[in-house]
Structure formats: C-alpha cells, structure tokens
Design a protein that fits this description.
There is one protein chain. By secondary structure, the protein is of the alpha+beta class. The protein has nine helices and twelve strands. It has two domains: 3-38 and 51-161, Uridine Diphospho-n-acetylenolpyruvylglucosamine Reductase, domain 3 (2-Layer Sandwich); 167-249, Enolase-like, domain 1, CATH 3.30.390. Helix content is 30%, strand content 25%. The strands form three sheets. A five-stranded antiparallel beta sheet has the order 4-5-8-6-7. The chain has a four-stranded antiparallel beta sheet with strand order 9-10-11-12. Bound molecules: flavin-adenine dinucleotide. The site of flavin-adenine dinucleotide has 32 residues, from strand 2, helix 6 and strand 8.
Length: 251
C-alpha cells in the first residue's frame, strides 16, 4: 500500500522526498513493469509544484520540469530554437505517454534508451535540481546527470539549454511505431562547430559525445542482447549521415 501526498508547494514536496517519499510526475515509468523505477511506501505528486514554463534567460532557454513530452514537441519556441529536442520529443513513446510523461520525470528516470538524452546534451543542457536534505539548488551538466552524478534524494526542477540553435535528431528502433531505440543521434550547430551526441549506446544513460568525422567506435558502445556494439557503431554512421544531410538542407 502506498500513501499519496499532494504537496502545498515545492518546500513541502522536498520535505516528503527528504522523508523517503518517491517523486511521481507522469507516473509512466513508475507504473510500467518494463522500467526499473519502483513506487515506495510513500509517494509525492510533484507535477503541480514544478514549473512548466519555456523562458528565455540571457540567450539560454529554461524549461520547467512539469512540461509534458507532448508540449516539448509542439511548442513553437522549442521547435524554432531547440529543433533537435523537439524532434526527439515527437519521436518518444506514443501519444498517450507523451501527453502525461514530463521532462523532469524523463530526466530523473535516466532510462538507458531515453530519446531526450542526446539532444539535451547537444544543446548543452544543465539539469536544475533541489537537494531534498538541504533545499540547496543544484546545477549539473546533462551528461553527468544521465551518468548518475546525483544519486541522493532530490527533485529535478528544470533544465537550462545553453546552446539553442539549428539541430537534427535521428533514432533507430527495430519495430515500426513506438519502441526503445538501439541508437539515437543529435547534431547541433554552434557557430562554425557541429556538436554531436549519441544516445542509447553507452554503458550508462549518459550520451556519448563525438566531434565531426569522429563517431564513437564499437569499443565505446554498449554490447547487449538487443544489439552488438559493432551494429550500434554502423547505425551511428547512418544516423550521422542523415543528420548532416538535414542540417545541410537547413542551410
Ligand atoms: C509504453 C511506453 C513507451 C515508452 N517509449 C519511450 C520511448 O520511445 N523513448 C523514451 O525515451 N522513453 C520511452 N518511454 C519512457 C517514458 O519516456 C518515461 O516513462 C517517462 O519519460 C517518464 O516520465 P514521467 O513524468 O512519467 O516520470 P515518472 O514515471 O513519474 O517518474 C520516473 C522516475 O523519475 C522520478 N521522478 C519523477 N519526477 C521527478 C522529479 N521532478 N525530480 C526527481 N525525480 C523525479 C520518479 O521517482 C521515477 O523514479 C516509454 C514509456 C512507456 C510506458
């Protein structure tokens, strides 16, 4: 039996997390037997105490943790300034999951095949969080966060994307329709430089960075029962070619 708490505000939510409650946002990972997060004896619904804004802050874009994946895919500012992220959101799961799953829950779940991980990293994402014990604000790079850097009770409150700009996103999954990706790839243009990250391929949920013309080799990639590291390396070559072509067409 799980006791549910609806917090008055962020401070109240943090107090519940400090006392051992599991944060719940869209609950799509928590309610699916396919995913590792489990609901403990107490849960706190964080959706209404976290922001869902899309704010421009000195050239960076700050997204609230309670934005849904569907909102990320549809918001005209995200489509214009963070196109790789908007495309990844549109390709995540199915319409039902996208309508309820949140940005904060997706980041915090750190699923190995998370579609949003590579574009968040390529847009130089910084995860914004609150430490449950002290209430202190935390800022952690998306790559480090997906790699498990914050492994104590906290709440993700949003993400700051410091590199808005043209970008492309590609994924490969073996089935038509929604299915976990074998490999994903995000490419973002920053001035004269192309910044690339590969997702769903590394040993952890952390996306793997690469420079133009230097895709990660099989030795850096995950080898599991779904796909070999050699296959993932070949997939990245194809996805990279497509993403470069799209960015080239976009001028
Ligand atoms: C049918 C199905 C298909 C899917 N397909 C895809 C796919 O194609 N690509 C993909 O990337 N993902 C896919 N997913 C995973 C989906 O994206 C995640 O389930 C979802 O993003 C989790 O978001 P949520 O808001 O529902 O989080 P929840 O399920 O509420 O929580 C997930 C985890 O994060 C914690 N948490 C939640 N919010 C916070 C917060 N603000 N701060 C700290 N911790 C928090 C919870 O305690 C839990 O551990 C699929 C899921 C389902 C059910």
């Amino acid at each position: 039996m799980t006791s549910w708490h609806v917090p008055r505000d962020l401070e109240d939510a943090l107090a519940h997390v400090r006392n051992g409650a599991t944060p719940v946002a869209g609950a799509t990972a928590l309610y699916s037997a396919a995913f590792p997060p489990v609901l403990g004896p107490a849960a706190v619904d964080v959706r209404d105490v976290l922001g869902r804004g899309v704010d421009d802050e000195e050239g960076a874009i700050v997204l609230g943790a309670s934005l849904t994946i569907a909102e990320l895919a549809a918001d005209p500012r995200i489509r214009a300034f963070l196109p790789a992220l908007a495309t990844a959101a549109a390709m995540t799961a199915n319409p039902h999951v996208r309508r309820v799953a949140t940005l904060g829950g997706t980041i915090a779940a750190r699923l190995l095949t998370a579609d949003l991980a590579a574009p968040l990293a390529a847009h130089h994402g910084v995860v914004l969080a609150k430490d449950a014990a002290s209430g202190a604000s935390l800022e952690v790079g998306a790559v480090e966060y997906f790699g498990g850097a914050v492994d104590w009770p906290h709440l993700v409150t949003g993400v700051r994307l410091e590199r808005p700009g043209p970008g492309a996103y590609r994924r490969f999954a073996p089935l038509a329709g929604p299915a976990p990706a074998f490999a994903t790839l995000a490419l973002v243009r920053s001035g004269d430089v192309l910044v690339g990250f590969a997702g769903a391929v590394g040993p952890t949920a952390a996306p793997v960075s690469f420079a133009a013309g230097h895709l990660p080799g099989a030795g850096e990639l995950r080898d599991d029962r779904r796909a070999s590291s050699w296959f993932r390396a070949r997939l990245l070559e194809a996805l990279s070619q497509e993403a470069h072509d799209e960015l080239g067409r976009a001028g």
